[in-house]
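Q: Could you fold this chain for me?
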Amino acid sequence: MVTKSKKPDYMYAVSKMKGAIPPVKWFKSKKSGKNPADSLPFSKALANNFYMLRLAFRICPGRVVLDLIFSVTDACFSYFHQIVLIGYLLSAVERHTPFSHVLVVLAVYCGLAAVDSLVSQWYNHSYLPRTDLVFYEKLQTELFEKAAEVDLSCYEDTEFYTRYTRAAAETGSRITGILNTFRWGLRYLIRSVLVLGTVVLLDPLALVFLVFPPLLSLGLQSRRNKAQYNLTMANTDPGRKKDYVHRTVYLESYAKEFRLSHIFEVLNQSYRQGVEERIHNFRTLGRRVGWYRGITTVVSIAQWPLCIVYAGVRVLVTHTVSPGMFVVLVNAADSMVYTVEWLLNTITDMQQNGLYIQNFRDFVEYTPKVADPENPLPVKDGEHTLELKNVGFTYPGAKEPALQGVTLTLRPGQTVAMVGHNGAGKTTLIKLLLRLYDPTEGQILLDGKDIRRYSLAEYRRLFGTVFQDYRVFALTAAENVLMRTPTGPQDDAATEAALQAAGLYERIMKEPEGLNSQLTREFAENGLVLSGGEAQKLAIARLYAAGSPLAVLDEPSSALDPIAEYRMFESLKEVCAGKTVLFISHRLSSAVLADCV
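A: Sure. Below is the predicted structure, expressed as structure tokens.
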């Protein structure tokens, strides 16, 4: 029953609730106004890459090991046929080496090349695509599980949704990109060491022309990557506007409003605004990306002619190297030019990857505030008593409390109706009872103990719920009722009983597939589309199928006509006999079945 507290009564207390829910600022940079790309140092970006490599090894160690092996073999084989083999052939000509010896070397080389080609074809076109799918599935599953774990308050924050969509969109391709960066980076690192050793032996002074331009390119490409990241992040929100309009235009649930109102003009304006914002970003931030890219290209192009001129002077003017060694030096210089360039590209790619990985890490490393205690108490079987003691709650960032001084007791088998106007705070109280939020004041007790001392999953299993914003999933009718995969005849019987109690049995069973009928037309052309009232009956059937000792119904009859509402309450009274039931409603008709209002 409801007892007096610091406030005159409960409804006065919840009337203080503010309708707007302020955003939760848990992803904001500590440095206000600082762009994420500028606040992430290279050391952090590098650490993010190795974080993803460890994650990749945990998911598929064979892929990481094979990438390592192929990096070493590719680097050595490439160095051999571009530097060593050419040098050997030129030396053989100058020294008049027997052709049979040269033929043996060429035969061995051709055999190794054939084996390398066959293995590379298998690796690139069979093994890599399969393991890419493994990475995508595992990482998306991890994101889904984390999304189900984070606090409900995070979903009421636009920034959280933006960061989550960025992480979900990038993760699958980003981890494979990091592995490719790792593989090619290691390959070019080994190759550059081998080539540099060759150049040092032939002409140490040539290192000036080979190393300085790539170092200059490194700084330019680092700035280009930051500019590219800033451009991508700036285009995220405008892209969401554009994608939202593009998506809603093709959805059936919006079709009537488009034809009977002028809302399409508003959405079309939002679409144009998103496109214009992206165009503006490309004109400003994109111009900077193009500027850095152009300078980097000029530096890279100038490097090769300088190397050729220097090598030509050595062979034609100073006569300090032979023509054969000239070819080797030119090949080494050529190899070094694009090897160092690719190596530096790899470094800047790692920096760019690190910026995107930060989105993923921020999301998966977020620690929920509503979580299990260290040593959770077991939830006993049987009847339970729920008690609220001077409970208060203030939404994050809000100046005034949504609830204050609420005292309420729900005894076993009791039916309580909570009636009040829209926005009074009834649903907020339900969220506290279900521990979707924790109170900021007071306590909620289960059988005399604070609910925060129980396992979160076990505590929530005590409740069967029907919310006013229920959802119909693009799954079978049985899966929608049980909210899990049916495992046998016993589940079918439970589903039928729940549908009968909710008054939806005949509607479902007249379909050819019966309980296996696909709901919605998301994936099935002939899928069953339920009306608003039928969908609400489906939500009520879930409550029956759950078999929980506590039932919470948030506006369960809002979409039902008076006759259907009366039948629903009659079936509720029969099925929920002996259970603790809490009604949330703004209609007094729901109070007729209650023991306490």
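A (continued): The beta strands are 386-393, 403-410, 415-419, 441-446, 449-450, 463-466, 550-554, 580-585.
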